[in-house]
Amino acid sequence: MKSSMGLLVSLYLSFLLAACSGGSGGGSDADSAPEKPTASISLLAPVDNTFSLKDGDVTVNLNGTDSSSPRNATLRYRWELIERPALSEATLSSADDAHTGFTADLPGDYVVSLIVDDGTASSVASRLTLTATSPFPVAITEPGHSVALGTDSLGLDGSFSTPPTGESGDLAYLWVLIEKPAESAAYLSNSDRSRATLHLDVKGEYKLQLVVTFNGITSAPAEVLVTVSSGDAPPVAIAEDASVILGEQVVLNAGESYDPEGKPLQYRWRWTSSPVDPDGVPLPDLTGTTSSTLTFTPIAAGTYNLNLFVFDGARKSAQREVTVVVERDPEAEDNKAPIGALEATGYFPSYSIGEQEVGERAEFNFVGYDPEGEALQIIEAVLVEKPSGSTAELQDIGSWKPMGKKIQVLDVAGTYRVQMTISDGVNAITTEATLQAKVGNVNGHPHTRGVEAQSKSVLVGDALIFDASSSDPNDDPMDFHWELVDRPDGSKAVIEAVIEPESQEYRRAKVVTDLPGSYTARLIVSDNRGLYARTYSQDDGLAKVSNAVPEIRSVVWARNWGRLSPGEDYFQILPCMSLLHRPVVVDPDGDEVFTHEELVSAPDGGEFTSDPNSEDCEDAYGLVFTKPGTYTFRYYATDLIDDAPEYDFVVQVEPLSQARGVRLRSISSRGSLWRPMPYENIPPYATPSGLRWDLSATEEQSIQWSMTAVDADYTIENVQIRHINGGLTSLTPWFEGLAEGQVIKKGASLTFRTWLPAVPCIRTDDKAEGFHFSFNIKELPELSFLYENWVGADDGTFGDWRQCEAGELD
C-alpha cells in the first residue's frame, strides 16, 4: 500500500489548502486595465462554413492575420480545436502560427477558438463553427484497438454512426471480420447490431469492417484493426460440465487450462456459495481441490455447482463455474425414503433455534432431501402438543416455503411440538420438532454474514486484511473463529485474528503473504452462550510480485440505469438539471479500483448537490449544478497498491438566459426533476422505476412530464409506442397529451403522461413486461426522448399476479 497513503495525505493537504485559501486579495481598478487585443478568424477554404463530405475528407484552412493589437504590437497566437464530432481524428496543423487548419473527416460540428496576446494583454476568445455534412450514411467506430494476449473478447461500438445529414431513423449495421491470423478461430457475435463483440484467441492482427445502411443507401466501410500482442495475460481456466448417474464418481478435469505465456499453473476447486439444488443435500467431500483433476461421489440426485480458477504465479484467471447434473439410476430397483429432519425456529425479530418469544411467530420447516431427487411434499402436519390454554394452530407459510408450517402467534408460554410426514410419492418419513415459547431470554441465532478482503490484491510480503460484518440479534458478545482454508502451494502463511478498532472485536483477520497466489480466509461466529451461526463465510485475496498502475481513461456522463455514452455530451447543460457522471477506470491487472471525486472549483456560490437552495433550484431534487459557470471535478483512483494519475473533468453550465431548444422535466409528488436532452431511460428486466410501489401491476400507472420550448417553436415527430417483448395490442402503452406533429410554441409548455397499461396476469417465463415510448424534436433531431420501463413479478413483488389463460391477452 505504498502509494495509497500518499493519496490520503494529498487529499488531506488539498482540503487544508482549500480551507486556508479563502483570504483577501488585492483588487484593481477596471478603468486602468490595458485595452485588449482583438482575435479574428477568417476562413480561407472551403468557401462556406457549411460544406459536404460527399467526395471525401475536406481540408479546412484558417487565417488569424486579421487579428489586431491596440498597441500595434506583435501578436502571439493560441489556436484550439475545442469541439469535433465523436471519434473524429481532426487535429490542428499548428497551435501558434498565424495560419492553421485541419482535416474534417466526419460529419458534424467543428469549433475552432483563437486567442491572441500582444505581450501586454490577451484577447477574448474568438470562435468559428464549421459544419460538415454528408448525403450518405457514415459508419463511425474506433479505428484501432490493442489488447494483451489472453483477452477473450473485445467490444466494438458503432453507435456513433450517422444517417445522412438532416435525416432521422434507424441504421442497419453489418460488422465483418475480413482477416485474422492463420491459426485463429476468432469470430464475431451481434454482427448486425451497433455494438458487436469480437472473440479473440491468438496473437496477431485482426482486420474488420463496419458498414451501415439507411433506407437502402450503404456507407463506405469503416476499417478497424485489432492488435493482440504478447504480454503477461491472465491464465484461462477450462473444465467441462458433467452428467452422471447416482452412485457414480464424478471426475472433473481442468487439464486443458492454460497460461498464454506457458507458465505452470496452480489449481483451485471449491463449492459455490449455493452449490446444490435442491436445498438440504449434504455436500460430499472433494478430492484434489489443488490439482487439475477433482473427484467426488454425490449421495443424492440434483444439480451441483463448483468454481474453478487457476493461477500462473502472477495473475489469476476468471472463475469458471462447473455444473454437475446427477440423475437417478433408471435401472435401480429400490426407492429410498426422504432423508432429513424437522427444524423449529423463531421468526423475526429472533431467528432462534428451538425457542421463541411469546407473542411472536414460529416456523416448523423440513430440512432434507430425496436421494433420487424426487419432489417432496407434506402429507400431514399436526400440532401434537401445546400449552394449556393455547388456541394456536398450524398454518401454511406460503408457496415460497412449501415444506414448512407456521404458528403465527405463540399465545402461551410453554412447549409446542409438531409432527410432520414427508413423502417423495413412494416412501414417507415422519419427523417431529419441539419449540419452547418463553418470556424473555430467547437466544437468537448469530449471523456470520459477509467476509470481505479490504484489498483484493497486495504485493508479496504485505498483509491481506479481511473484515467481517457479523451480527447477533441479541447483541450478545461473539467469538470469531477464523481459518485460513487456502494458500499458495508451498506457502507457510498463517491467519491471525486482530481487533477491529471501531467495534473492539476480533472481527478482523490478517494474513502476511509469503508467496504469490490466492489466500482464502473463512469465518464462522458463535455467541457467548455457545450457539454457532448456521453457515460460514469466506473471501480470498491475491498476492503478486508486481503491480500495474490503474488509469482513469475518461469521465463520461451517466445515462439513467448506468448507461454511458463515451465521448457524447448533452445538448445543453443548465442549472438545476439532474446530472451524473462517472470515471472510466482501467486496471491492467484486473484489480479492484477505488475512486474518489472532489469538486475543486466552481463559480461563486455554485454547488453540485442533491440538496439545492430553493432560491437557486425551486422544487427540484437530484444531483444538480446550482449556478451557471465552470465546474472542475478532480478524480482519484487507487488499487490500494498504486495510485492512478489524477484526472480533471470540466463541466460548463450555461445560464438559463441562454437556454436553447426544449427543457424536459419529470413531475412527481416530490417535485420536478429536470432532465438533460437527449433523454434516455432503458432499465433491465426489473420492477417499475419512478412509479408508486404500493400499486399493483394490475392497475394502470403513469408518469407526468413537462416540456418547454425555450427559444423557438418546436415540433414533435417520430412518436413511437410499443409493447417490447411481444408487441401485444392489449399491452401497448400510450402517451396522453402528446401526438405526432404537435407544435410547442416559443415560451409555452406541453404537459403529457406516459401510461403503462394494466397487466392482469403473468404471460412469460421471465414474468416481466416491457414498454417503450420515444419521440424526436423535428427542428433539432438530436433532442430525442426515449423512455422504457418494465414491470415484473420477482420474489413476491406483485404477488397477486396469476398465470394468463389462453387467449386472454392479444
From TrEMBL:
Domain PKD/Chitinase intervals: 236-329, 448-589
Signal sequence residues: 1-18
Keywords from the UniProt entry: Signal
Superkingdom of source: Bacteria
PROSITE patterns: PROKAR_LIPOPROTEIN (PS51257)
InterPro entries, per the entry: Ig-like_fold (IPR013783), KIAA0319-like (IPR029865), PKD/Chitinase_dom (IPR022409), PKD_dom_sf (IPR035986)
Name of this protein: PKD/Chitinase domain-containing protein
Taxonomic source organism: Microbulbifer spongiae
